[in-house]
Amino acid sequence: MKIKTIELIEIKMPLISFFETSFGRTYERQIILARVVDEQNNEGWGECTAGETPSYCEEWTNSCWEVLREILAPVVLDEEIETASQVWNLMKKVRGNRMAKAAIETAVWDLEAKKLNVPLWKHLGGINQEIACGVSIGIQDSVEQLFDKIQTELDTGYQRIKIKIKPDWDYQIIKKVREKFGDILLMGDANSAYSLNDIDLFKQMDGFNLMMFEQPLAHDDIFDHAKLQREIKTPICLDESIHSAEDAGKAIELNACKIINIKLGRVGGHSEAKRVEEVCRKNNIPVWCGGMLESGIGRAHNIAMSTLGGFTLPGDVSASKRYWHEDIIEPEVSVTPNGSIIAPEKAGIGFEVKRNRIDKLTVRKIEIKS
Ligand code: OSB
Ligand code: MG
């Protein structure tokens, strides 16, 4: 196949409620969507998961827009592509910029699966059509608000609760959550808010029997995480630090973590995500699918990826209605009473893209042709 057109569309979508991590609050997402079209007019959709500011990682919406438009689209357009799995290699000469790359790469996977008339999850090699779901709950203004949110999600059936932690919203909060909710599956995500000076705090929090501490230390660190992991029994899960299968292999060899979360954007798309999953599976490191407050398109890709065999822990893949008044796909993503999502049977990502809805939300768009 040859990609003849790449359409970039930036949409603005207000979140139903703000989402706060150790690096700040988000009220409204600015999301770049990529639509790729081949010479037979097959189309595929992908999403760039970069945030509005370079806080989670170096990439952000505007940096991705420029890189996609000026660098990556020309690299992919009009090239003879035998399989979607090769798109990653085409883009290899561009360093970094994995979230921008993933927007195009995942779109080509969707296109290819549609062309073959198979669901994307099967095309990727997925084996579990039903995936286990958890939720990520941001830092709140009060403990009572946090309790309310946790209760709502437990009532809905979600299988595990992740709360965001940061200095002064950690030990006391987890203690109160444990007292109120007992031994629910609970974990804390620090988004790099701590350093090795906080080892004693982590030793104290070790007693809470959390499923894991996600990314406690620096976003670009593996070594210090190994030091921390030696001191605590709670598994460390790496998020920000893992960009590739190579990173995963090194982190595992160093015992820097016992769990890894995979985000399509962070690793650069489905091909690299599959390689990370494989490294982890071969080393008995459980993986789960991370989230980046995606719209329905990114969410659909996350669902497909989560069906791979190594995804043995509940992911941050949850229903559209937790985020949006109205999603950009149909049907919207919904969870079963057991807190699971069933990957769709239809070809490609398996959801209809609501072009009218996207048009209403669009702030800029551009069509790049070969
Ligand atoms: O670290 O997992 C994270 C959202 C934005 C940036 C980083 C993270 C998150 C989440 C949200 O935890 C997960 C979701 O999409 O619900
Ligand atoms: Mg995280």
Task: Characterize the structure shown.
With 370 residues, this protein is α/β, with parallel strands linked by helices. It has two domains: 130 residues, Enolase-like, N-terminal domain (Enolase-like, domain 1, 2-Layer Sandwich); 221 residues, TIM Barrel. The chain contains 13 helices and 15 strands. The longest helix is centred in the N-terminal third of the chain and has 18 residues. It is globular and about 60 Å long. 51% of the residues are buried.
Task: Name a few traits of the molecule.
370 residues; alpha/beta; Enolase-like, domain 1; TIM Barrel; 2 domains; seven-stranded parallel β-sheet; four-stranded antiparallel β-sheet; 15 strands; binds 2-succinylbenzoate; binds magnesium ion
Describe how the helices and strands are arranged.
Elements: E1 3-21, E2 24-38, E3 43-48, H1 61-76, H2 87-90, H3 98-115, H4 120-123, E4 130-132, E5 135-137, H5 143-156, E6 161-164, H6 171-181, E7 186-189, H7 199-205, E8 213-214, H8 223-231, E9 236-238, H9 245-253, E10 259-262, H10 264-267, H11 270-282, E11 287-289, H12 296-306, E12 329-330, E13 340-342, E14 352-353, H13 355-361, E15 362-369
Parallel strand pairs: 5-6, 6-7, 7-8, 8-9, 9-10, 10-11
Antiparallel strand pairs: 1-2, 1-15, 2-3, 4-13, 12-14
Helix pairs in contact: 1-3, 9-11
Residues 21, 56, 136, 189, 191, 239, 290-293, 316 line the site of 2-succinylbenzoate.
